[in-house]
Prior knowledge:
The chain is an alpha/beta fold.
Amino acid sequence: MRIVIAEDDLLLREGLALLLRAESLDVVATTDRPDAFLEAVDAHKPDVAIVDVRMPPTHTDEGIVAAVEARRRRPDLAVLVLSAYVEQAFATELLSSGAVRLGYLLKERVGRVEEFLDALHRVADGGTAIDPDVVAQLLTRTRPDTALERLSPRERDVLAVMAEGLGNAAIAERLFVTEGAVHKHIRNIFAKLDLAPTDRADRRVTAVLRYLESTQPRP
């Protein structure tokens, strides 16, 4: 796995590089600027980019803008975004865009090495990785949704863990149930949210997106 890191915090950037190299992963470039990041993507053609949301010069959304441009240039590039705190709009947009080969983690998650590496491999393999703390914070903001009210407490539990990007086996392990039970709950979720198998959209992503949207505060 070839990796480019774009992070303006020197200690975190070098720490990430050391950690990944210790795992026999190929860190082909590290940078602290969005323009240098894009140059590295063009030059090294990485499999994964780890990108800070806020980068110089304004420390607003330069990292996200650079990540979007990198994906435009290399549509197969997996991107794992790091953020110091929950940015709700980006978390929701991540899922609404299809959430393929994309992840969003809080920086504190990097210190939990196994969880961080699991998220990295998940996005590299074409999946989604949403920080559970992001999901938890989004769930504290409720807004009525009639269809979602049909879900049982256990179905809501399953949907909340789905929002982290976990597959059925990992959901079963997290909730201490069988994989068959998870499959049944997900089938019920799709039925109660009126998501037919013939829908062109990814039903899993659509279900999670509706759940996260329901947790945002009313305008």
